[in-house]
């Protein structure tokens, strides 16, 4: 007996309108379009509903009832299908779900229960829908960026689970509503060696693709030498990532504090023990419950992030009684931390806390952060100086001293022009944020000079009508005008040519004399209401206040990239990865 060409488990009515022309292909009998066949009828049913709605039983029934009621059943059903399609695409890109989720039995059953009329797309169709969404989102982002007057760019490198390198580039600007905005320009597959020249070429290509090359105000990167040289080769101002800079300061200070290094080493062993032993983990939970200690897990230190050192020590200090009791009740050769260790940890945490808070605040997105670098560094220095005298523990005192010295050497931020001007242009800080008033006055002079340059750039010859009005002879004046010709010409010249420096000085001083905003207020909202009051400074505020203080936006993209390119999706193509990350960031 001959085998049926169509699998026996398929009993859908759609086979009345399709022929199976190969194991992986079907052909519509109505319009002759060929579709991929993957053991289910989803793509065929979707095709019939989209192209030939009159053939579907549900549609026919809906049409009949809708016609009787004077409605439009087909349109409503198609509209519902489109809404759910969009929701599915959003779920894929926002939650980093693989395309094959639409083939998972549990997910299909769940969707069927929610809405039996919804036809899930095939994996291939879903990918096409995501690609279409990408093109729409990219077009929208291009329109936004065309209106931006200046942009700052962050860049960073990342390696996927399959050991493929990517260059991430994000763009930051102030939009036409005086709000901070950002766009992920791309996460490009980087197959070349990570030289400054290759990075430069990739960056230039990305910026030209978006039409942004002439708008780049500065490039924010980590302190890697190839990134710094890349900015130099591009002739673009480079700003270091200040979260990375603070990380280097603290790591260096920790290395120069040997007693604390020993405590950290023993702390890591304790954390590893409780994380790797089920029995130890259960015992710690039991002791926490008995002592009514917060049931928090211990946190492990990571070499590349000093913040993890702070969090590990803080959690060990919080759980010191529970950890000591648990270790004492389990046979182990792990040496516990003793009272003297915890005394050192306690004061070291006080010394490190300002750095942790500073890093967290500077790394925040969707708020003005570049203007905070100078005041935050200044406040950290103030905190260290005020704590130094009251420290009782020798280890904490040495750590504090190391931090003060290294911070002063590596973070002389008040001399960095773009940071100084952004701080001045932030009405919460102005000149009061500077530790040195001489640096503050230098910044005021630079701001005034840039305003004057703006005036000179905007100055133009008087219009024809104005020139005619000024030079039109007055017949009644007669020969008297000739007498005053020299003086009139000099007065006319002063009226036509403004004094840029004087005008700039007046505007800057008027702004500086205004009351300060409170720290919780929005500086961009302030400038939105001062566009006509301070037109020169308003223009410069849009140029300087959009700069992020760190390259963390790129790092967060890569954190999401790690979710997308997980082991379940390790075969994801680089182009698809970039598409999903772009939508995840820019939707």
TrEMBL record:
Gene3D superfamilies: Zinc finger, BED domain-containing. It comes from the Eukaryota. SMART domains: ZnF_BED. Keywords: DNA-binding, Metal-binding, Nucleus, Transcription, Transcription regulation, Zinc, Zinc-finger. SUPFAM superfamilies: beta-beta-alpha zinc fingers, Hermes dimerisation domain, Ribonuclease H-like. The keyword DNA damage does not apply. Its main location: nucleus. It holds the Pfam family Dimer_Tnp_hAT. The keyword Nucleotidyltransferase does not apply. InterPro entries: HATC_C_dom, RNaseH-like_sf, Znf_BED, ZnF_BED_domain_contain, Znf_C2H2_sf. One of its GO terms (biological process) is post-embryonic development. GO terms for molecular function: DNA binding; protein dimerization activity; zinc ion binding. One of its GO terms (cellular component) is nucleus. It is found in: Nucleus. Residues 9-59 form the BED-type domain. PANTHER family: ZINC FINGER BED DOMAIN-CONTAINING PROTEIN 39, ZINC FINGER BED DOMAIN-CONTAINING PROTEIN 4. This is Zinc finger BED domain-containing protein 4-like. It comes from Betta splendens. The gene is LOC121201890.
